[in-house]
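Thought: the user wants the 3D structure for the chain below. I'll pass the sequence to the structure tool as-is, report back what it returns, then summarize two notable features.
Action: structure_tool
Action Input:
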Amino acid sequence: VTEWLDAMCTGSVVYASFGSLVRVLHEQLYEVGHGLEDSGRPFLWVVKESEVAASPEVLEWLPALEARTAGRGLVVRGWAPQLAILSHRAVGAFVTHCGWNSLLESVAHGVPVVTWPHLADQFLNERLAVDVLGVGVPEYGERARTAMAIGGSSYQNLTRLIQRFTPSDGNGKEQ
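Observation:
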């Protein structure tokens, strides 16, 4: 891991790891993996071996993702030396579950975090990182769901767009 990081530019690597207690569903793993790939940024992603082995779906797409991102992305299956990773000059951001130790280690090494809490104290730790310390940004999934809900900003914008480009009688027929 350290040798791979040594080859990367300062602050360029997105490090993603979700701790030992958090169970990430295979659909979530897929989204995280493809999000890292689509970002175009170098990334180091730690995936628990149990999550890979437990899912035929992950076993299907993960090797292909690793091949497509070879050189730019590194997937570590199992355990990784998090403190050594967070203290490395190449790491510029940490996508984290907001476990207490992970948050302390990232703050101690000046690495900003993208927060994705799952359980217990992780939600309070997220508030500490985002609202108090100002070193984190929340994962925007909840905001997107709120925006798309009835009455949300995206819902309202789409409604206005539809109203603008459809007949005023609303029956869907040309006038």
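Final Answer: Structure generated. The longest strand covers residues 91-96. Strands lie at 13-17, 43-47, 73-77, 91-96, 113-115, 136-138.
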